[in-house]
Amino acid sequence: MAEIVVLCLAALLYVGVTLFTSRLQDRDMGPEYNLSPRDGEPSYSTQTQRMQRAMRNHLDNFVLFAAAALAVFVTRNDFWLTDLAAWIYLLARIAYVPAYYYGWAPWRSIFFMCGLVATIVMYLVVLF
Predict the structure, then answer these.
(1) Helices 46-75 and 2-29, packing angle to 10 deg
(2) CATH assignment of 2-127, given 1.20.120.550, 3.40.190.10, 1.10.10.10, 2.40.160.40?
(3) Quick one: which of 128, 16, 126 has its CA closest to 70?
(4) What residue spans of the chain are helical by DSSP H?
(5) Burial of residue 22 (number of CB atoms within 10 Å: 0-12, 13-18, 19+)
(6) Are the CB atoms for 65 and 119 separated by under 8 Å?
(7) Exposed/middle/buried for 10, CB within 10 Å: 0-12, 13-18, 19+?
(8) Most buried of 11, 47, 48, 123 (most Cβ within 10 A)?
(9) Cα 13 from Cα 24, distance rounded (Å)
């Protein structure tokens, strides 16, 4: 059941990252640009561009995690290992956002790999 709780929290994290990214875009271009049809190419700050990439990366990884969490839940293969993997995924994704925003290398990549490995563990539990 922890997998479903983490799935919901990860979705809320995505909402938070999206809202924060939107605020950064407003800061860089003004709210008029965000409300416009966006015909021109914006020139965002480095940190705004980083948050845009972090947001896209979170969505990509969220899809993989969501499928793993649902597979664990539906097959009733949840136990301490899948619970732990789910929480590791969430903590890694939470750490990933500021690591990307502030350009912390190699921590961004380390947090990414922690979340990915945790997701893979969940798939392996379902498969075997």
Answers:
(1) 160
(2) 1.20.120.550
(3) 126
(4) 2-29, 31-35, 46-75, 80-102, 107-127
(5) middle
(6) yes
(7) buried
(8) 48
(9) 16
pLDDT-derived band at 98, boundaries 50, 70, 90? very high
Asked if 71 and 6 touch (Cβ cutoff 8 Å), the reply is no
Distance, in Å, from the CA atom of 47 to the CA atom of 17, rounded to the nearest integer, reads: 13
Where along the chain do its domains lie?
A: 2-127
Question: How large is the average pLDDT for residues 74-89?
Answer: 97
Residues whose CB falls within 8 Å of the CB of residue 8, separated by 6 or more in sequence, listed in order: none
- Kindly state the tokens that stand for 68: 């793993």
Report, in angstroms and rounded to the nearest whole number, the Rg of the chain calculated over CA atoms. 17
